[in-house]
């Protein structure tokens, strides 16, 4: 999207944003920004370095991982951070986000964990990073166990009771993993909604089928599911209305 404005001040701000963009010849999503706020709100500047769909976001705590990683990658204000570490995290994230089933192996988990830890080592001066690091470590190292609810613990041996207690602990951690899965799916759904090409449309339909086949996730992501269903119908109507070429 190009930014057209007769405002001289906005034009100056635009030039300044591009001056600090590590890839100014690429796509700059001006639609994320409210130019009238560039002189007052630094976050409106930051959104120029992010993917589409950030228009309504008003702070780092409201942005998804993709937005923050792109900000680190495309704004030279963060040139003090080893960009290779940023790009490796982006690469791992994209491998997961472009997998419709959201399925990864143990090797991917180990690689992703290592990439995240190496990046976070460079951000230890940020107070929020310490708390986030603990949460990330807990999520990526949690055991994936199947728990059977409602098991009668009467007449159980101490060893069996200890096993059930341990399973309860993993059940709690599994809840954290489930929430992580929901957030990742929500992030990917928001991305594909803003891309109209055939490949992304096909992935959007695959994600819809995945959610329909998993009602628990579909219920938590019902607004996104309704949106992609509506977009799918709109796309089909457009295809049906296109004139047939001889």
Task: Provide tags for this entry.
246 residues; mainly alpha; 3 domains; 10 helices; 61% helix
What do you see in this structure?
The protein has 246 residues and is mainly alpha-helical. The chain has three domains: 1-78, no CATH class; 81-141, no CATH class; 170-237. The protein has ten helices and no strands. It has helices at 8-19, 42-46, 65-74, 83-97, 106-120, 127-141, 158-193, 198-213, 215-220, 222-241. Helix 5 packs antiparallel against helix 6, helix 7 (158-193) packs antiparallel against helix 8 and helix 8 packs across helix 10 (222-241). It is globular, with a radius of gyration of 22 Å. Residues 145-158 and 160-176 have low confidence and may be disordered.
Structural domain tally: 3
Fraction of helical residues: 55-70%
Rounded mean pLDDT score = 75
Percentage of residues in DSSP E strands: under 5%
Distance between the termini: 34 Å
Biggest pleated-sheet summary: none
Radius of gyration, rounded? 22 Å
Order of helices and strands: HHHHHHHHHH
Per the principal axes of the C-alpha atoms, what is the gross shape? globular
> Uncertain segments of ≥5 residues (pLDDT<50)?
145-158, 160-176
Task: Please provide the count of β strands.
Answer: 0
Count the DSSP helices: 10
SS class: mainly alpha
């Amino acid at each position: 999207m190009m930014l057209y404005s007769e405002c001289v001040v906005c034009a100056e701000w635009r030039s300044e944003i591009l001056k600090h963009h590590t890839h100014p010849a690429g796509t700059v999503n001006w639609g994320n920004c409210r130019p009238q706020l560039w002189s007052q709100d630094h976050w409106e500047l930051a959104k120029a370095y992010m993917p589409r769909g950030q228009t309504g976001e008003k702070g780092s705590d409201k942005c998804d991982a993709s937005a923050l990683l792109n900000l680190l990658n495309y704004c030279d204000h963060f040139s003090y951070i080893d960009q290779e570490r940023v790009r490796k995290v982006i690469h791992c994230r994209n491998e997961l986000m472009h997998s419709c089933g959201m399925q990864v192996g143990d090797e991917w988990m180990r690689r992703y964990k290592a990439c995240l830890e190496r990046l976070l080592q460079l951000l230890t001066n940020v107070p929020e990073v310490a708390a986030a690091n603990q949460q990330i470590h807990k999520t990526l190292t949690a055991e994936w166990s199947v728990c059977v609810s409602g098991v009668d613990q009467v007449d159980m041996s101490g060893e069996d009771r200890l096993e059930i207690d341990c399973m309860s602990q993993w059940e709690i951690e599994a809840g954290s993993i489930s929430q992580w899965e929901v957030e990742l799916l929500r992030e990917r759904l928001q991305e594909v909604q803003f891309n109209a090409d055939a490949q992304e449309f096909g992935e959007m339909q695959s994600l819809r089928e995945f959610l329909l086949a998993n009602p628990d996730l579909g219920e938590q992501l019902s607004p996104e599911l309704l949106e992609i269903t509506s977009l799918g119908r709109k796309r089909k109507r457009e295809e049906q209305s296109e004139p047939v070429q001889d």
